[in-house]
Each structure stands twice: as C-alpha cells, then as structure tokens.
Specification:
Elements (H helix, E strand, L loop, with lengths): L5 H15 L13 H15 L20 H11 L12 H17 L6 E5 L2 H15 L4 E5 L5 H9 L3 E4 L9 H8 L4 E7 L11 H8 L5 E5 L14 H8 L6 E4 L12 E5 L35 H13 L7 H21 L4 E3 L7 E6 L1 E3 H17 L5 E6 H4 L5 E3 L4 E8 L5 H17 L1
Parallel strand pairs: 2-3, 2-4, 4-5, 5-6, 10-12
Antiparallel strand pairs: 1-7, 6-7, 8-9, 9-13, 11-13
C-alpha cells in the first residue's frame, strides 16, 4: 500500500462529531446517487494515475511534498461546511483558526506583533508584500537577485514599478556589492531577500543586506516561500543560520505552508512586522462586514474569497506538529537536509558528476561532466529520461556559467548556460531511501 488510509476512518469519526454540532436543525437528505458517484470517482482515480508518484520518496524532482494526513482530514472535514474566510459571516471558526495559525508562524520568526493572513500561494503573498512596498515607497524600484523567483519581476510589471536584477555570487546568492551599486542611485524602495531560492535552495546574505539598510532607505522583503520553515532546523551551516537568525528584522516575510508545512495546495502566507500597513487594505463591503466589529480577514487581504478549509488544515497540523526547534516537525526538516548532504557527498565521489555547491537547505544541483557545455546539457537530459524509466523522478534546471564554472564540469564553454540535474530532498523519508535513490541514479547514468 502506497497511500495512507487509516486517516479516513478517523475522519468519519470526526465528521460525526461535527454533525452533532448541528443536530438542532431539521434533517436534510442530500440528493446522492451512490452508484453514479462510485463510477465517476473510479474514473477520476484512473485519470489521476497519469501523474508521477509525487507522494513517494522515489520522486525527488520538483517541490512536491505530500500533505500530512491530519491536514488532508481537517481540510475534508471543513469542506462539509465549505467556509469562506473573506468575512466572519462565511467562516467564523476558520477565521479564528487562520488568525491563530498565522500568529504561530509569525512567532516562529520572533514576531508577536504582526499583520498577516493566508493566501492561495506564494505568488499572491509576494504580490501583497511588493504592493505594500510600493505604497510606502511610491515610484521606487524592486530589487532582487537573478536567482530570485521569476514572479518578482513579473509582479513588479503588474504593479507598474521598475525592477532591478542583481547578479549573484558563485553560490547563487545575491551579491551585496552589486546590490550596493544599484542602491547608490536612490531608486530602490524594496529589496527582496530570498531564503531558499527555488532553483538551487540558495540563501541570500540577509545580514549584509540589513547592514546596507542602515545606510540606504529601503524596505526588506524576505521571500522564504520555500525555505521559511528551516528557521527552526538545528543543522544549518553557518551562513544559512546567520540569515535565518535575523529574519525577524525584515519588514515582511512570505512562507508557503504548502511546501514544507505539510499542507495541500494552495496555502501561502504573508506577514508584515508593522500592523499599521493594514491601512492600505482599507475598504468597505456593507454586505459582508456587517455581522461583527471584529477584524474580518478580507479587510487585510487583496484576495476576496479564500478557502477556510486551508486554515483548518494548517491549524490542525500545527496543533499536532508544533513548529518548535527540536520538535518532531523540526527533526523532519533536519532529516531532509541530512538526505541532501548525503546526496551531495555521493555526487562528489562520482567522477561523472559535478555538484555545484553544498546544499544550503535540501536542494541538490549538479552538472554532468562532459567535453563541452552543450554535451553536458544533453547528457543531463538523457540521465533525466533514463532515471524516469527506472521510477526515479528528478528535475532539470538551467544555470549560468558563473554558478557552474567553479565545479569545473566541462573543458569547452560553447554555451553560457548548462542544463543541470536537480533534486529536492524534501521528504524526511529521503534520508532512508538515499541508497536506493543513488542506486537508480547510477543505473540511469550507465544506461
């Protein structure tokens, strides 16, 4: 059995408890054709087989981590009511759950006072952070590294603000010296610091950017959509540890619980250190905000309708697995990093591969050695396809020459980029499965 099913029985018990809370109501017999539903769901299950096994440790490619059973069950439980967390009228209980869950995430970064909410994902969360930055620094540009998520430049276009791409160092991190050159012009209002780039898991040097903020006027937005939960991991290297230890000095933070937070898609979160930024959200909706003088989440969000089920799922997961240093949840993150370090060490010992740099979190990237850059890319694609035939699912990512050259993968640079292989060891089980993963990788490379 590859899919956990015990939680379905627990869900049925919980559904009965939920139902008893509404037993004062007249009976309602929903129209349901069990046989027709059974047939359609069977057909759906067959269609869903046309996927890679995202839930399995042999899938180590993209950022896909199965939600915890308690998150799936809580989400389904809430869907019996289908609450909308735009207003208390449509999601009273789940709005409270959202506020509690977001407060718990904020406390993970050292913020007791904050303003924040869940979102459909990191893109919308980052959009709100950049929008607030625009309102506070009108006409100013957004600056981010060339390895930052592509949405920052696209969102800047949507917001009508200039975007400045900052070069990176050989570790894929924003280069502070290059950033300062741009800051001297006085045109930058927000600097995006990425703690966990999506391509290589690189950690931008937040302490250096904070030092620059002492001399120049700009806001710091930390995009920790992927890496944010590693704030509580106890086995980070010094550069990453120094950055995460100072994350609370940023002006805003984005974290995606649907990545390392064990949540179903989509569940992002944006948090601001200064609650006063809520003034930019101010609006009136007389047909939704009439039931309470308490804060409605729609009053601090650009999104309107949002699934209350996402809040219930995150709240339940935090209750079961608190994000505390040294706890069970944190140890799972540490296992992911241990798996990545073991993977990197094995690649270094294999003369066919050229790992770019030790993983800062749990993402490993490596080039395939060859005579030329073009041939290296071609070999990477062949290994990617051969591994998939062996049920080992990797990913491909293209990196620029300055990030790859220190690894010396090729003799002839006939291209400025190389397609590399990439693995996200983001399931705790990857640590125990690493021998099997390496066995299949070696077989794919020999094919």
């Amino acid at each position: 059995m590859t899919f956990e099913q015990e939680s379905l029985h627990i869900l049925a018990e919980s559904m009965a408890i939920l139902e008893r809370g509404f037993d004062r109501l007249p009976d309602l017999a929903p129209e349901l054709d069990p046989e027709a539903m059974r047939a359609v769901l069977a057909e759906t299950a067959v269609r869903l087989r046309d996927n890679d096994p995202y839930h399995h440790p042999l899938y180590i490619g993209q950022m896909l981590k199965p939600p915890h059973p308690v998150a799936r069950a809580a989400y389904t439980l809430a869907m019996a009511l289908n609450p909308n967390n735009h207003a208390l009228d449509g999601g009273r209980a789940t709005s409270a759950m959202e506020k509690e869950a977001v407060a718990r995430l904020a406390s993970m970064f050292g913020w007791e006072t904050h303003l924040g909410h869940l979102s459909g994902g990191g893109t919308m969360a980052n959009f709100e952070a950049l929008w607030v930055g625009r309102e506070l620094r009108p006409g100013k540009a957004v600056a981010a590294s060339s390895q930052a998520h592509y949405t920052h430049s696209r969102l800047s276009d949507v917001l009508g603000v200039p975007f400045r791409k900052i070069p990176v160092d050989p570790l894929g991190r924003l280069d502070p010296a290059e950033l300062e050159k741009t800051l001297r012009g006085g045109e930058v209002g927000t600097v995006v610091v990425t703690l966990g780039t999506t391509a290589a898991g690189a950690i931008d040097p937040l302490p250096d950017v904070l030092a620059l903020r002492d001399r120049y006027d700009f806001r710091i937005h930390v995009d920790a959509a992927y890496g944010g939960y590693f704030r509580i991991a106890g086995n980070l290297a010094s550069l990453a540890r120094e950055a995460f230890d100072r994350i609370g000095e940023a002006d805003s933070i984005v974290i995606d619980p649907h990545k390392h937070g064990l949540q179903p898609y989509g569940c992002g979160c944006v948090i601001f250190r200064d609650p006063a930024v809520g003034r930019f959200y101010r609006h009136d909706s007389p047909y939704t905000y009439f039931s309470s003088n308490e804060l409605h989440l729609g009053e601090i969000s650009l999104e309107c309708s949002r699934a209350g089920a996402s809040a219930a799922a995150l709240w339940a997961t935090i209750r079961l697995l608190p994000p505390d240093p040294g706890g069970h949840f944190a140890r799972g993150l540490e296992s992911c990093r241990e798996a990545a370090l073991a993977f990197h060490a094995a690649l270094e010992a294999d003369d066919r591969f050229a790992p770019l740099f030790p993983p800062a979190l749990d993402i490993v990237v490596w080039a395939v050695r060859a005579g030329s850059a073009t041939e290296s890319s071609a070999r990477a694609r062949r290994i990617f396809e051969a591994a998939a035939r062996l049920d080992l699912h990797l990913a491909l990512a293209t990196f620029p020459r300055p990030m790859i050259e220190p690894a010396h993968p090729v003799l002839n640079w006939d291209a400025d980029t190389i397609v590399c292989l990439r693995a996200c060891a983001m399931k705790p089980e990857h640590r125990e499965w690493m021998p099997e993963i390496l066995k299949r990788l070696h077989a794919a490379a020999d094919a």
